[in-house]
Amino acid sequence: MKQVVDVYEVGPRDGFQNLRDYVPVNEKLRIIDGIIQAGVRHMQVTSFVSPKAIPQMRDAREVAEACLARYDDVDFLALVPNLRGAQLAWESGIRKVSYVVSLSESHNRANINRTHAESLAELRKIREDNPDLHICLDLATTFGCPFEGKLPVEAAVAFAAPYAELVQEIDLCDTIGVANPRQVRETIRAMQEAYPQMPLQVHIHDTRNMGMVNTLAAIECGVTAVQSTLGGLGGCPFAPGASGNLATEDLVYMLNDIGYDTGIDFGKLLEVSRYQKEAIPDGIFSGHQMRISRSTSCG
Ligand code: COA
Ligand code: ZN
């Protein structure tokens, strides 16, 4: 039997958040629909964050509600940075959130204006407020920070300890795309050893064309949930130098071809990626170009 790999599409959040011009809700929903028609069953559809920090996500409630109303067989998540975000997500019907905290304190401050202690205290409040919420810790800058450089593997393991009591999953994020496969393997093995019951995910940016090898390294260590964005959109507005994520179509092509079961139709995914590229002209991107051009055939 083929091994299942769950591909989490995070473009509607990580991709769109980084666009300079606002993408209207109906356009977001068309792209989301195309991705789901291609077979994607896990998606981070939006984030409940300050509209001043990320104006592109000001329609979070509308997007979340529309998605939940349309599809009952898709696992929808939203990113939240604080209690208010978690409450807004819950009110919109979202039952799974990604709670973002950065391993490096300086990026945590730049991104969400919180110290580590404040972020942990806030998560405790969220857990208390809502015991039924499924929380995934999005551990940003796990593999490197724009301000502090690389942090040792032991730092990630130690940092995760109090969080492991509060969350259902941990997502190790290469926010600025500086990881290498050896580092990915060492980090994952150390986390698996310290937290054997904790499901892990990876979220890898493709700044140096290492997204594919790093994601594959994680899968070969036993990680079965991996994140990517259609067209390789993405980036953190609060991490200088961050560029796009690993492109979902490239990832799916590789995984299907190796023989993993993603449940995703590469040809259909390519179609929606092409549509996205036309619907959102390159000119409006703040940091980079979409990468769809690499996947040109359905073969
Ligand atoms: N959703 C919507 N609005 C929110 C919010 C949320 N989750 N959290 C706070 N706000 C609003 C507050 O109501 C307040 O509004 P006002 O100025 O109209 O009164 C404003 O945002 C500031 O609130 P405050 O609690 O003082 O937050 P802050 O200024 O310290 O900013 C965050 C902290 C976390 C809200 C903000 O930095 C943020 O949203 N960051 C998101 C970063 C992000 O998404 N990065 C990319 C993904 S990793
Ligand atoms: Zn990201």
Topology of this structure?
Blueprint: E1 6-9, H1 11-15, H2 25-37, E2 42-47, H3 60-70, E3 75-80, H4 83-91, E4 96-102, H5 105-112, H6 116-129, E5 134-140, H7 153-164, E6 169-174, H8 181-194, E7 200-204, H9 211-220, E8 225-228, H10 248-258, H11 266-279
Parallel strand pairs: 1-2, 1-8, 2-3, 3-4, 4-5, 5-6, 6-7, 7-8
The chain binds coenzyme A and zinc ion (ZN).
Structural features, described:
The protein has helices spanning 11-15, 25-37, 60-70, 83-91, 105-112, 116-129, 153-164, 181-194, 211-220, 248-258, 266-279, and strands spanning 6-9, 42-47, 75-80, 96-102, 134-140, 169-174, 200-204, 225-228. It has 11 helices and 8 strands. The longest helix has 14 residues, at 116-129. The model is unreliable at 283-299 (pLDDT under 50). The chain has 299 residues and is α/β, with parallel strands linked by helices. It has an 8-stranded parallel beta barrel, surrounded by 8 helices. It binds coenzyme A and zinc ion. The site of coenzyme A (COA) has 21 residues, from α4 and α5.
Shape: globular
Walk across the major sheet and give the strand order: 1-2-3-4-5-6-7-8
Structural class by secondary-structure content: alpha/beta
Q: Cα distance, first to last residue?
A: 23 Å
Q: Find the count of extended strands (DSSP E, 2+ residues).
A: 8
Largest sheet properties:
8 strands, parallel, barrel
Number of DSSP helical runs: 11
Helix content: 40-55%
Keyphrases for this structure?
40% helix, binds coenzyme A, eight-stranded parallel beta barrel, binds zinc ion, alpha/beta, 299 residues
